[in-house]
Amino acid sequence: MSKRIEVNDLNVYYGKFKAVEDVSMLIEPRSVTAFIGPSGCGKSTFIRTLNRMHEVIPGAYVEGQVLIDGDDLYGPGVDPVLVRRQVGMVFQRPNPFPTMSIRDNVLAGVKLNNRRISKSDADELVERSLRGANLWNEVKDRLERPGASISGGQQQRLCIARAIAVEPEVILMDEPCSALDPISTLAIEDLIEELKQDYTIVIVTHNMQQASRVSDRTAFFNIAGTGHPGKLIEYDDTRIIFSNPSVKATEDYVSGKFG
Amino acid sequence: MATTVSMPKTLTQGQLHPRTPWVVLGLSIAGAAGVVSLISMASGEEFSLVGTVALGVLAYLVMIVILSRQIEGSRKATDRLVTALVTGAFLIAMTPLVSLVSTVVILGSERFDAEFFTFSMRNIVGEGGGAVHAIVGTLLMTGTAAIISIPIGLFTAIYLVEYGRGPLARAITFFVDVMTGIPSIVAGLFAFSLFAIFFGPGVRMGFAGATALAVLMIPVVVRSCEEMLRVVPNELREASFALGVPKWLTILNVVLPTSAAGIATGIMLAIARVIGETAPLLIVAGFTASMNTNMFADRMQSLPVFVFTSYANQGVDTQAYLDRAWAGALTLILIVMALNLLARLIARFFAPKLGR
Q: What range(s) does the ABC transporter domain occupy (chain A) (predicted)?
């Protein structure tokens, strides 16, 4: 259920502005890959190109290739909607749909597409997804309450449950813990560890301890200065990045000399 | 130097008793009443209530500021001055509204009876009669205008917010702004000349009136719906896209439900805005004493035009015509009020549920 992502010579633009330059990397299935780097270096921009969310912004476009198990996401005739059904995404701020109950939020991927689903299938999907997001025990008695009625950490896990309910191959997480307290962060990190069994996970984080705790491989992005594009500086096993990086800038960043 | 005033060490200072301002206000008004009545006696004119209040409030302003400055210091004195000015401005703004509503209720209740809501004016000269033909006409024409303008307005707003980029969107926004400002008489003349092309000059029909109202209503609907769609957070759209939901389904199932409360309120207010239009209906729908439920033939009466014609063409029993005009005005206000209440109910019903 998980796929390999291969990125070849990717340039990302906002209109005329080149935000990310010349990124190539290989992300293995059933692994956690962390993107670290200072603010504005293009981590979030880059992760959004992996499920074609980047082009939602007017004027934004991409040059290069992103292959998922050999299929080019940016090839001719590729439907971004179908891409996003395979590559799910969790955002920085928990964003459950405010008009829907907890149960409907989990079923959002089905219901928003106006697909019919039998009551028993829906119940099973809700329970499976919420269990998968470690949230079932906390909300099983109040599935009909509004999605915004639970705590921020629970809302974020609800968003993860919503993402895995559409059964994607890859889950992208854009700073999923930055709006959460340490206890909720721990719950999400444990969850990432479990999800790794089934999914390819890519996570953007500002928290280097988090990157070293949860990820197998780490990519360090940096930027030469304002107005310059962000670049991939180093991409290696997390252990190596944090203990013996080959580039000076990486070592400075992970040891806290800047950033 | 004046700037190096030593700060007092205590946290308490002199304070006026909570009732003092009221006593000062009472004394000011009483004093002003005395002065005004002296003047009126001397000049032989009638006692002026407005003059009393104005003079009393002025005296209050001066006295409370002096008093407060002496006891409480200049900061509190400024506070009392501004409080008095703001309250005064609010009361001045409220006066015409209260006066209008009370006048309409008092004069309108004279003929606010069962006959008013069951009879038309057919074959009625003088007393009796009613406005049922005008009420039906107003509801029919406004309803038709709403049916025409809500889809057009809502879809335009969706285009502007979700799809519109570049010169076309800018042009639409500009012309919507221009349309918001057209005088209603121009909308009436537009509808008249449009229908005159097809039905010849002198055409009068309810549907033409509805068209004129729709011209006035569309820009209001576009504006209010646009505002409401814009406040839907982009995060929700992105959350939906990330689940593999196409754009049109995202708009239909996420954006519209999230903004439904605001859209419903905006539409209701747009209806309330056009339901009282007189000039365009006078031109294209004309006026009549008879019931007409056919939108596509003959003149159709409406409440604002009913009020206008009752006043403009008073018959033999003048008072009967005036009473009917006021009752018509009261009915119109009640309909608008009911629409506003309905809008609030709808807004509450659709509002996103955030309760814990």
A: 5-248
